[in-house]
Amino acid sequence: xxxIAALLLMLNYLSVSHGCTCMEGPQxxxxxxIDAGQGNVVMTDRNNYAYxxxxxxxxxxxxxxxxxxxxxxxxxxxxxLEDGVYKYVAGSFVYANDHTLExxxxxxxxxxxxxxxxxxxxxxxSTIASDYREQSTVSWTTLPGLLTYVSCSSKYGCWGVNxxxxxxxxxxxxxxxxxxxxxxxxGLAVMVEIGTDGSVFVVNRGGEVxxxxxxxxxxxxxxSWTKIPMPSRINHxxxxxxxxxxxxxxxxxxxxxx
Length: 258
Known about the structure:
Layout: H1 2-11, E1 21-24, E2 31-37, E3 40-45, E4 49-54, E5 57-72, E6 75-80, E7 85-89, E8 92-97, E9 101-105, E10 112-116, E11 120-124, H2 126-129, E12 141-146, E13 149-152, E14 158-161, E15 166-170, E16 172-173, E17 178-179, E18 183-188, E19 191-194, E20 200-203, E21 209-213, E22 224-228, E23 234-240, E24 243-248, E25 253-257
């Protein structure tokens, strides 16, 4: 605990190069996973409960235990600890179906994507995901390829990583879940997150964070990676509206202005 306290104290004065300044964020210790979108931030802790950030305070969203939660244009979606996909509606998580996803992302242009423990990739069309309000059976579209993590943006497309840590990019049609085909991007990572504005960040196996450079409408896959120095090994990141939200291997949440 002394090491954690010392790290938090250091973070109050930490300035990170390459245009990012990190400070201690609102804590719900120990954090495991965090996701930001459209000005909202959600997270899960080590007890597998989901929380929503209001101001500087985390509020528990439901008694349902989740292994992953995501917020974006399609709303707030989560994957239950004991399987099943849920959407947060009117103050509680509503069961969508028993799809065995391990990770879900709601950051696309209304569509929801996710991957299973066998690395298959699935997409819920925007016409279904955005309007989902009550328990019913929904049909997911299986996408080609195998990934262990996937993230989408409403601006440029979707990024993913596979079990070999290879990084991929594709464009997605939200209303049909059709894709342009996966393009391998240089580099290695265990997770990738893309912000609403198209900014892309990855975490590699060593807990290092990198940002993709050169992303624009003509080159949506970008051109190179820039390392973002961090004070500790990093487990998870998410980016929204200029803020990079970070979870360290200690379970501490950082808020970095980038």
